[in-house]
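Contributing new records

If you add data, match the layout below exactly. Sequence lines come first and carry their own label; structure lines follow with theirs. Keep one chain per record. Anything else will be rejected by the validation script.
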Amino acid sequence: MPAASDLAAKTAGELVALFRRRQASPVEAARAALKRIEAHNGRINAFCLVDGERALRDARASEARWLAGKAQSSIDGVPTTIKDIILTKDWPTLRGSRTIEKGQDWSEDAPAVARLREAGAVLLGKTTTPEFGWKAVCDSPLTGITRNPWDEQRTPGGSSGGAAGAAALRMGCLHLGTDGGGSIRIPAGFTGVFGIKPTFGRVPAWPLSPFGTIAHVGPIAASVEDAARMLTVIARPDDRDWHSLPYDPRDFVIGLAEGVRGLRMALSLDLGYAKVDPEIAALVEGAAGKLVEAGAIVERRDPGFSDPAEVFKTLWFSGAADVRAAIPRERWPLLDPGFDRIAAAGETITRSEYTRSVSARGEIGLAMARFHREFDVLLTPTLPLAAFETGYLAPPGTPQTEWAQWTPFSFPFNLTQQPAASIPCGFTSAGLPVGLQIIAAKYQDALVLRVARAFEELCPIRLPQPN
């Protein structure tokens, strides 16, 4: 029988195999995860809510199903977390904001949470986010600073920073995040775990993000297979989301092991315009070389669009303005000053500026659709730099002042709605993780996972080992 500490280190697949053989129980797995949270969350601040009593209650129900041979899914009994942007029944969803009233009706699950609950996942609690998920670091007026497990003086990235930190420290196996400009991939890159932003609409969402159709829902995990298991569940249909894709009943675990031989890959170290730390570029180029050794055909090629930062900013700031407009004006002083600033800027955007950005977004999407006629996937760095100190919106000591300035590889593929993932591909000389981003054409989520799994075989994910 595995020790509790061993259970916390297991993947979802390993846990389910143990449950099936009755060599461990969901109750033991939940206790192991809760013990990890107790040991490490005080330093990292990855959770804003932990409900151990409810988790153990749900784990006991899962245990009974396994003993009766009636498990509900391939993640039944697996410890799971929810980002505090996503509605979860009976728990407040405060979105990192002091402006939201805690004592209101919390009687509905968002679609992805409902699917996880139906699948028997054991929900541990809610993970931290910056206010309304507005930035690519993870601090908020409500919950304070979330820290990077590899170096507690550095940011884990955002906005799903709590989820990524929890994944890195094995405080649960499966972590539900959101990604409106890189919010899954950025923290996955900074903390050295795996995260995938599925094709927009693959995972039903309700209510629709105030940032609109650039915001996706997806998994963060410590292994590609775990993320694939989670995606299989959360991609199930929900009629509350009229943007969602027609349901594809595939199991995303199937096909993971098909490898990359013969796949055509483009490698772009800068998208033609980004500035990248040479150490990061070298590690990503080395990662592409590993895929070549595995049989992929890799060619240096930029996708051919110019920097879409202004297009993204117009859409993002407009969404922030809508969020603030729904908050009583007397509560605006409670907002994160940075969020308040971009919301005010969003109010000044004209209708013609917005519609031009929507049109420009379509042109970028068309460019990428044409690009993928030649290449199965595009490889880039996840980020152009390693994690920097907490307490800053942008790297200190640089002329950058906005988060989108140092995330040039992530938000373009929110504009295009493509599936994109980050998988760790090495460490800097300072011992900080570096991410490889894998992007495929719309609807090719399974291909992103397949390439990521092949790379994981070549370069296994290494997690921090805290005291």
